[in-house]
Predict the 3D structure of the following.
Amino acid sequence: MTADAEPAPISAEQREREDELVQRVLASFADTPDARLEQIMRSAVLHLHDFLRDVRLTEEEWKQGIDFLTAVGHITDQRRQEFILLSDTLGASMQTIAINNEAYADATEATVFGPFFVDDAPHVECGGDIAGGATGQACWVEGTVRDTDGRPVAGARIEVWEADEDGFYDVQYDDGRTAGRAHLFSDDDGGYRFWAVTPTPYPIPHDGPVGAMLAATHRSPMRASHLHFMVTAPGLRTLVTHIFVRGDDLLSSDSVFGVKESLVKDFVEQPADAATPDGRDLGGRTWSRTRFDIVLAPAGS
Ligand code: BEZ
Ligand code: FE
């Protein structure tokens, strides 16, 4: 199958030689004890050879590809996972999420996890502030957690994390402090609420080979403004998602293809003199508020 240009014509003899190699490689997996592994390896080989033959890859281009993947490996360490970034920017992460999180009734849609989640983020009570010193405009976030039968889910664990107004997650600070992340639990009625900062756009790490790929293809590293959620509750499918800011110019060009229309929410700007929901004094600054009602599918659905 050809993505764009027609492949250069090749002789029947050449085609046969190439086909024969593909068949030999496929046959080499015949003794794989694990049937699923055999299926994956055969399919990967088939598509890889299709790609090589489709673009008639030159030996120089093959070497460039190997050098690129080598650089992706070299920059990857405990703190930076360039292979996941590559998967994200090629849409492979979102495709895997689509395959594994089929739509179920009105369950909230999933989106990309990203590299900035941290286990053991601090606990805040419902109504608390997850900003923890992250700079930005204060934002009141509230909603409910329900199952697909509409029943409130009490005690759901809600992890939230976000970048500050300069586009940095706390793990990118050099002083090791925790900010812009926390977990809380839904109350007896399934409700939850917290203060955060209004999400702003930021670039994915683009000083490595993935950034070079984006630059070479004239693609932007920018992510649309978002606030991450991971919601877990017994008997229900874990939801990894974000909410996005309606009106953000980057919604249609998110660098990791994470935006889904159902996740775009109104973040309503509030005047400085508007009373806050919990009476918090914001020192005369403007703030925003949004609502995100979360619906969890049954586990295993
Ligand atoms: C993020 O939203 O945190 C993210 C997702 C994919 C790649 C880089 C960052
Ligand atoms: Fe993010």
